[in-house]
Each structure stands twice: as structure tokens, then as C-alpha cells.
Amino acid sequence: MKSTRRNFLKTTALAIGMPTIIPASALGKNGAVAPSNRIVMGGIGIGPRGREDLGAFLKQPDVQFVAIADVQEERREIVRWMANKQCGNEDCAKTRDMFEVLGRPDIDAVLIATGDHWHALGIILASKAGKDIYCEKPCSMTIRESQELADAVNRYGRVFQAGTQRRNVDNFRFAAELARSGKLGKIHTVHASILHLEESHEWLPAEAEPAIEVVDWDRWLGPAPWRPYNKNYVQGRWRGYYDFHGGAALPEWGAHTVDICQWAANADDTTPVEFEAEGETIHARYANGVKMVMRLAGFNGEGKWVVPGTCPVRFEGDSGWVEAADSGKVAVSSPTLLAGGAPAEMAGTDPSKHVRNFLDCVKSRAKPAANADVTRRGHIVSHAASIGWRLGRKVNFDPATETFINDAEANRMCSRARRSPWHA
Amino acid sequence: MMPKPTACAAAPAARRGTPEPKILLDTMIAIRSFVPSLLVLALSGSGLAAETPEATALAVLASQAGVHEKARACQQLGVVGGPASIPALAALLDQEHLADYARSGLEGIKDPAAEAALLKALPKLEGLYLAGVVNSLGVRRDPAAVPDLQKLALDPKRGVASEAVASLGMIGSVEAAKTINMVLTTGPAELRVPAAHAALAAAARLAKAGDPAAARVLLDAVVRTVTTGALPAVAKHQMAALPAK
To answer: A17, A221, B115, B238: which sits with the fewest CB atoms below 10 Å from its CB?
Structure first.
């Protein structure tokens, strides 16, 4: 008999003497999803943004969330409470050791929403453990990590979705598809908004470490290099520090906006061939001549973007342009481009459709919208651009080898050592 | 293998870190900020241009600067350092809090002397320090490291056999593959899964390098030796993607 989860449940039930009258809900009737069709999930490192993702997962009828691993007790307890409330039981396990979650054979998929410096290694370890993965962005600290995570996901045959949910937000999809369809004419420039670039090498003052059960600082650091504990880091204020925030913060929004530009430019399978910074604006050019401009936008709307909201993108062709942002709105150069109707307004930060796309792919084994291959290249573009900015000069990049051309200095910025004993 | 810290793990950071008294911190930083400049002047006869970024970073390492300043200097040398930086970085490979930073410097220096320095450190190191250097040798992917990694992979007493196998997988040469195969087929049971992961990585390298036959041997070994979990299926899938014999 072919071994399936359904068969396993059946034989296990017989073996341990469970009642043979099975509730209708367990068979998927009355709107419930049968256990064999449920996706059993665990979480690794779920803070404020991760809880938004988790909320979207918990709303799905076919998700059963059974365990949380977090190095912070307070966060473990919040997530456990959320999961148990949704499921109406007390079954969600909590631990500070992610290997307890990865080692559970009943868990199909994991939500990873740690700090950025843990993302790629978490993806790799989860892939090796045979789990499908939804991981918050940015998914990598370096170009090398972008490659490693995609290689691991593909090698182990996992379904992976980066938390770049704008691939499944209506107005962004609409804008990208408008560009890809040719309705804007030949695309010549795509614009990706970014935040201010920053790269601090400071250390916050040392503070006494909490008890390991309260905050496991050594595990919080994980592959990042050692520094003394300060509560600000674990409370979310790690951004801007080189050791925890890759790419000089460019991938913070670039993971979304550069990624959408790659998609719109029909460039998911390549990268630009050159990057040149001019202040905090970075100009990139693809081999086919299409330009990408990474330029500032902020929470206050600076940067001359038309559509309100964070994370704006803009695509320009010979015969028109379109712009989209997190307000859910689009702007177009001509009303005729909206002849088929404007897209439904949906907040750009809403992960619900993206989560559903992931879950459907876990079942079908198809590639999600923000799969490992597009994530690899989109993140590489962000990192390569930030390296150009750090060097303050033009850098040339080979999309085939994913290395800088005749530029040892730039190539030495493509990876970082992991703190022992962590490795891929 | 999943790099779960085991017996070789150092004491938790809570016991490793000794926070500097806050009252002195600002003063110390102010004093330290002058030290590198003075040492750059002292280095002017060393053959390194006195004001290069490398010389400045080396001056910090030679000074009484604190962990923070030296850590940053190591990272900088990973980008700007050359052969002249290798001895100073290698000297930190057994230093608490700085060993990983030193590796970040050495991983970035492509000169063969950096590889030699890492290899030379192997017999002297233990625990996390040894595991870190083994990992760096894998990252650098220099075939010159294979004989030493082979010894570590086959010597359980050093405590880094799984790290050594993983690094051999990252190097992925034919010689590295032989040891991985040996560990898979005749090694201790606890190394079988780490060796299988290494075999998958090495097979991918070998296939990319145009040696599908060597890749097939490794993948076949995974299928034969690992009987539970998903790894045999992963190996079969990878084998199916190889060019036909």
C-alpha cells in the first residue's frame, strides 16, 4: 500500500485503539478540513511582522499550527496564545530550540520570521529537514546567502515562498502585468523605491544578559558575529547595524520593490549588468538596455512618487507608464490602460493572498510567486546595488556567474563568515 | 549536518562576555580613537603604505584597542587585506569573541597564504574555534584543504567530523567525494546523515564541473546507506537530473 498521510492516520488509529466512529469534521465535512488535507505548521522566530503573517496563516481552514520556536519567552508565549486561541485547544508547543520544530516529522511547513541575519540559514536548515518554508524578507544578508538558500530549496525539493507579498497584491500585480503585456510599449525604465541607506558598525552599550530562558542571546546571534547584549537588539531595533541588516538596508524595501521591477522587466531569470550610485540613487542597467532606478521614498512620501503609500514602484515604456504603492492604488499615463477595470484596492502589506498561494503550492508542489529562484536574483540585485553604493563607484556584474567582473574588492563583499559552529 | 552546537560548544555568551564598566566606556573609546593613527605612523617602515586602509586596520589589531575596534578591523581586512594581514588575523583564531571576526578577515583574502594559515591552525585549536576554521576551509573551497579535512572527518576524537564532512561537501572535488563516500559507507552511524547532506552538495558541484559519473557514485551511496527520511528520495531525484550515462 502506498504510504500517505491518510494511510498513516488510519493505521495509527487502529494501532492505538482510537474509536472507529470518526467525527464529520475530521473527514472534512461541515466546512472543516480533513486532517489528511491539513498543512501542519510550526514557527521559528515570530515577532511583530511574523505575527501578521501568522494571523494570515491561522485564518486558513487547512492550517494547523502546532509549535513555535523562539529565543524570546515573551514572543513564544504570544504566538502560542494566538495559535491555541484559533485552534480552541492548548496543543501549540513552545521551545527556544528551533531544531525541536525542525525535527518533528508531523510538521510540513515552517514560517520563519526571525531577524534578517537568521533567514538564509533558517531556510537552509529547514530545507535539509524536509520542511516547506515561508520566510520573511529580506531572505539573505549577502549575495552568497541568496545563492545558498535557492540551492538548498531546489536541492531538497522544497516549496519556498519569500515574504515578498506584493507579488500577490492586486495593484502591484496589475502594474507588473501591464508592463509585461506590452501595453506600455517597450519597457525602458523601472523604478524601485528604497529607504535611506545606512550601515552602522557601532555596538550598543553592554547590558547584563537575561536568563537564557527569557532571552537566549547566543542563539539570537546565531550566525552573526558576537557582540555584547543590549535589549534594543532583541526588541527589534537591530536594523541599521551591519551585522544584522544586510545590504546597507537596501534590501529592506528592495526585497519587494526591486523584485517587482525584475518581474515587470521580464528579468526574473537575470540581473542588471552594471550598478552605479549617485548619492542614494542607484542606477542599474540590464544587458538589453533596460534601466532600473533605485531611489528614495519614505514614510512621508518624499521622492516625487505619484501614488501614495510605502514601497512605490514605477514602470515606464515607450507608450505609457504605471505606478503602484502600498495604498493599493495605481496611477497610469492614460485612462485607456484601465479599460479593463482598476485593480481591487488591497494594502501592500497584506500577506493573505501570498500565504494562500504558498499553501496551495505546498499541496500542488508548484512554485509559488516568490519562489527561491526569483528570490535569489531579486536579492542579488539589491545586494549588488548596495555594494556599488558602498564602493562609491560603478561596478559591473555578470548575471551568469553572479560575480562582479574584474573587481576583487566588490567580490570580497559578497559573503560574510558565519559565527562558529553555524554553517550551511 | 545541522550545526547544532554539541560537546564542542563554548560556554554561553552570558559567561563569555565581560561587559566593560559603562562609566569608563566613553573615555576608553576616546583614547582608542588615537591609537590607530599613532600605530600607522609606527608601521611606516613595514613595507605597507602607512595610510592604506589595510595598514590602518592592522594598526588597530596591533594596538591595545578593545574587542569592538579589533572586530571591525578584522572585518575590514576581509575586504582590503592582503598577505601582510594574514599573520595578525591568524593570531586571533583562538581568541574569545575575536576568532570569528578573524575568520571573516581570512575568508576574504584569496591569497594561498590565508589557506595555509588556516590549515596551520588546525592542530592547535579545539571546540568552536576548530569548528570555525573547518567551516572557513569549506567556504574557501580550496582543494589544498582536502587532506586535512579528510583526517578530521575520520577522527572522531577531534569532535568536528561532521563539520569536516560538510566542508568536504562544499569543496566538492573528486578527492573530497572519496572521503564523503567512505564516511557514508563505513563511517559511524551518527555521521551518516551529515555525510549524506555533504554528498548531495558535492554531487551538485561535481555535476556542474562536468563529472556526472562521480556525482552518481556519491548519490548512489546515499540511496544505499541512508534508509530512512527523505534523503534517499532527494538523492534519486538529483540522480535523475544528471546527464545520461
So the answer is: A17
How many domains is chain B partitioned into structurally?
2
Q: What is the DSSP letter of A68?
A: E
Q: Last residue of some domain: B124, B149, B164?
A: B124
Q: Report the percent of chain A where pLDDT is more than 90.
A: 89
Q: Which value does ipTM take for this structure?
A: 0.89
C-alpha cell at position A261: 521591477
* B7 band by pLDDT with thresholds 50, 70 and 90: very low
What is the pLDDT, as a whole number, of residue A366? 98
| The three three-digit cell numbers of residue A119, written as one number | 533567514
Q: Which residue has the higher pLDDT, B43 or A176?
A: A176
Distance from CA of A144 to the nearest CA of B (A): 10
Whether B8 is in a domain gets the answer: no
Treating both helix axes as pointing N-terminal to C-terminal, what angle do B174-186 and B146-153 enclose, rounded to 10 degrees? Answer: 10
Cβ-defined contact of B68 to A227 (cutoff 8 Å): yes
B117 and B147 co-located in one domain:
no
> Considering B124, B154, B183, which residue would you say is the last residue of a domain?
B124
A420 vs B107: CB contact, 8 Å cut-off? no
Segment B59-79 shows an average pLDDT of: 98
> In chain B, which among 43-62 make CB contacts under 8 A with chain A?
none
- B178 touching A (Cβ < 8 Å): no
- Could you tell me which of A150, A101, A152, A110 has the C-alpha nearest to residue A132? A110
- d(C-alpha B167, C-alpha B134), whole Å: 7
User: How confident is the prediction for chain A on average, in pLDDT?
Assistant: 92
Same domain (yes/no): B221, B235: yes
